[in-house]
Design the sequence.
């Protein structure tokens, strides 16, 4: 159970509430008001709260802990309002048959609460000043100081920094390449970073994966990485998905993301993700490493003119179990992050559209424009011509298929459209080859991907509403455009 | 033509309407208030509302630093708003 209180927390009462004869161990965490923060003397603090959302989200975290860990009970209470130094701010208690699950669940609950429950700490200092904790980079004044060495670089400036703060980057794989990539992007102030990785931290990772420490061993990589990244820059929103990037998750994310970095050690994943990105006109940077060498590919400004990892495979190393010296992926990852920052800030780069290799064994650095591999399926007309499936109006002569979620449909009904999920559409939904269909989603990416997949299956009269319902709204109202106009479109505008 | 073959119209429920905006923590300090009612425009989303407020209230946080809640549930920036919706922008959280 999760609760909020404005009164002092009585730990003994809450500990009694989770007592259970089945439990062989209890782990509890007590968070207190400390008298210092970043070298400043803290005199007191105030917790602000969005009460209804805090209670529902806190309860969701408690329920997740019960589902994920082999525990008997979990309870959490968070104090809000005015607190003095030394008082208990939060208490988490877990009972389990065995201690490992109790420790893990307790850690999970307190970490998730800090990240997801809308409670804000306002610290008051001995010198009479005060500040909102975790919001150091939130005002332009603080941001200017924090990023001053970065904004001083020609071509960056405050405009570039603002573009970074508005960007959402998807990092697929938080291993040897993903660690330096995530570290650099979060440090640079990219506004939102989503991490996807189904692996757990192992001691054998540590020589090359700098986000992790020994005590992270056994933890899901996305959880350990997120803990460290939020410490690096608390103004960045970091989301973790502890799974592989499958098609349903990809379709969920593509409408929100501005740039993808493929950082796994799997050639299959690189091939799949680079093709998905190409089909969705999503800018992508794909990297790979092998012992003392590695390389990365930056999609061109016209993403659909690029190649996939399969086209590059004759050039790239097999990144399986051949071994790797730690600094190799660190260098490749750092270079990928540099290209990502430039792309997001719309700075030109000579490496755009090129395959760049770094061979530490032979002492070579080279970059060249890769040729498409003849016969590669990523070059089929349906895949290579993104404009080929798009319509810009809600043509009433077509049958509309609404690929949005239930929540999106409730918000903005399309009463004449047939609701169908992208997964259902691609797995046997009955379509008439003689009928013309218009696929509709919010931003046109889910519908574009699905339309191209159906074209590949021989249905030539399937179309996608370009830019989705958002673009349709913009074209008929004075509504301000959403900031997240795809980075692809933005990047093309500088060409 | 946006409404296409839809007879009921696209924006029903949002033509003359207001939404309730809540501010918390650093955003409340920047906005100088904890809540306000705003006229909702056709097709409004949290993203569009924030763009207008960032200018009029001189909000100094970027959307990527914030999360959005509609009617006390986390929501997406692209979700369409209805009359009477309670909209909150959530600054970086610091509980615990």
Sequence:
């Amino acid at each position: 159970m999760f609760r909020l209180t404005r009164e002092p927390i009585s730990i003994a009462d809450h500990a009694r509430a989770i007592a259970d004869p089945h439990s062989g161990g209890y782990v509890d965490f007590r968070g207190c008001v400390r008298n210092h923060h970043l070298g400043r003397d803290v005199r007191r603090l105030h917790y602000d709260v969005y009460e209804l959302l805090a209670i529902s989200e806190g309860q969701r975290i408690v329920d997740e802990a019960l589902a994920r860990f082999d525990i008997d009970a979990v309870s959490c209470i968070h104090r809000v309002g005015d607190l003095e130094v030394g008082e208990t701010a939060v208490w988490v208690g877990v009972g389990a048959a065995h201690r490992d699950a109790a420790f893990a669940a307790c850690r999970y609950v307190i970490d998730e609460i800090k990240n997801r429950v809308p409670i804000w700490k306002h610290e008051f200092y001995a010198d009479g000043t005060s500040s909102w904790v975790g919001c150091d980079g939130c005002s332009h004044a603080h941001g200017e100081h924090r990023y001053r060495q970065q904004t001083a670089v020609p071509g960056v400036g405050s405009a570039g920094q603002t573009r970074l703060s508005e960007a959402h980057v998807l990092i697929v794989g938080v291993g040897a390449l993903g660690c330096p990539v995530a570290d650099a992007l979060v440090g640079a102030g990219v506004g939102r970073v989503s991490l996807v990785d189904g692996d757990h931290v192992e001691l054998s990772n540590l020589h090359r994966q700098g986000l992790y420490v020994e005590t992270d061993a056994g933890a899901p990589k996305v959880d350990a990485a997120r803990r460290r990244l939020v410490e690096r820059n608390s103004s960045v929103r970091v989301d973790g998905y502890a799974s592989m990037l499958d098609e349903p998750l990809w379709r969920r994310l593509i409408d929100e993301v501005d740039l993808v970095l493929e950082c796994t050690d799997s050639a299959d994943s690189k091939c799949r993700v680079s093709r998905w990105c190409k089909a969705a006109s999503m800018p992508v940077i794909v990297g790979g490493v092998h012992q003392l060498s590695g390389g990365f590919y930056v999609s061109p400004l016209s993403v659909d003119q690029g190649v996939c990892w399969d086209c590059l495979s004759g050039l790239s190393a097999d990144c399986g179990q051949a071994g790797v010296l730690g600094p190799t992926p660190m260098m490749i990852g750092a270079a990928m992050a540099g290209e990502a920052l430039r792309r997001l800030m719309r700075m030109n780069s000579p490496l755009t559209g090129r395959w760049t290799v770094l061979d530490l064994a032979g002492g070579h650095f080279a970059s060249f424009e890769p040729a498409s591999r003849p016969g590669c399926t990523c070059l089929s007309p349906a895949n290579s011509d993104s404009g080929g499936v798009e319509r810009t109006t809600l043509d009433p002569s077509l049958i509309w298929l609404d690929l949005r979620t239930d929540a999106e449909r409730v918000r903005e009904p399309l009463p004449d459209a047939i609701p169908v999920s992208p997964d259902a559409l691609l797995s046997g939904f009955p379509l008439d080859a003689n009928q013309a269909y218009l696929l509709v989603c919010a931003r046109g990416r889910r519908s574009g991907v699905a339309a191209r997949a159906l074209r590949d299956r021989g249905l030539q009269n399937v179309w996608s509403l370009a830019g989705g319902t958002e673009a349709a709204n913009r074209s008929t109202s004075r509504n301000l455009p959403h900031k997240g106009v795809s980075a692809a479109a933005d990047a093309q505008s500088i060409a | 033509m946006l409404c296409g073959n839809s007879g009921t119209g696209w924006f029903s429920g949002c033509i003359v309407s207001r939404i309730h905006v809540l501010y918390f923590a650093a955003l409340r300090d920047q906005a100088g208030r904890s809540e306000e009612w705003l006229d909702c425009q056709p097709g409004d989303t949290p993203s569009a509302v924030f763009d207008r407020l960032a200018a009029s209230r001189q909000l100094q946080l970027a959307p990527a630093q914030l999360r959005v809640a509609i009617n006390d549930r986390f929501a997406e920036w692209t979700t369409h708003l209805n009359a009477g919706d309670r909209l909150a922008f959530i600054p970086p959280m610091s509980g615990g």
Q: What stands out?
A: Residues 26 and 186 of chain A are 36 Å apart (CA to CA). Residues 381-387, 477-495 of chain A have pLDDT under 50 and may be disordered.
